[in-house]
Amino acid sequence: MTFRFSIIILSLFLACNPTNKPDRPDNLIPKDKMAQILYDVIVLNAAKGSAKTVLENSGIMPKDYVFEKFGIDSLQFAKSNEYYSYDSETYDAIITKVDTMVARNKRIYQAKIDAEMERRKRERDSLNKLNDSLIKSRTSIRPKAKDSLAKAIRKIEN
Predict the structure, then answer these.
(1) By residue range, what is the domain housing residue 29?
(2) What is the spatial distance between Cα 46 and Cα 40, in angstroms, rounded to a whole number?
(3) What span, in angstroms and rounded, lies between the C-alpha atoms of 3 and 9?
């Protein structure tokens, strides 16, 4: 939500600017594509914060990845972003779409994480039961072994 708030504040700041509305760029990024780009930027910023070296070691340079993925350059992105942010309603619609994508994918990935944690818990519980079973069988074998040993010693003594 803070990202959305920042974008809205930026949009309002730009909207209050006394200059004229920016001209529509010739290579304006479509709204849906812009939402996808902003979504990827959010995901990469989150990943960069927690695993920047993992990304870089995988050959993913966060700054360049989005531009290459969508076949755009930084100037095209900047001009499209400026154009959309001047119209706060349009930009708010784009940001709402980004928020929806984030929420949907968060639910999907959280479900996967929960399923994996449940699988690991079941596996751990199974191992604990197996371990308990082995401990029980060892302790139940010992008295029998002692009895057998005692009988063998008695036979030898007799």
Answers:
(1) 2-157
(2) 10
(3) 10
Residue 158 DSSP class? -
DSSP character string of 30-55? PHHHHHHHHHHHHHHHHHHHHHHHHH
- How many structural domains compose the chain? 1
Per-residue pLDDT of the chain (158 residues; tens, 9 = 90+): 566 666 666 565 655 555 578 889 999 999 999 999 999 988 888 777 677 677 777 777 777 888 999 999 989 999 999 999 888 899 999 999 999 999 999 899 899 999 999 999 888 888 778 777 777 766 665 566 666 666 766 777 66
Q: Can you tell me whether residue 72 is helix, strand or coil?
A: coil
Count of residues making up the chain: 158
Report the alpha-carbon distance of residue 9 to residue 5 in Å, rounded.
6
User: Measuring CA to CA, how many Å separate 49 from each of 5, 62, 68, 81, 150?
Assistant: 20, 11, 21, 23, 68
At residue 19, what are phi and psi to the nearest 5 degrees?
-70, 165
The pTM assigned to this predicted structure is 0.61
Q: Could you tell me which of 74, 104, 80 has the C-alpha nearest to residue 31?
A: 80
- Exposure string of 4-17, with b = 16+ CB inside 10 Å and e = fewer, is eeebeeebeebeee
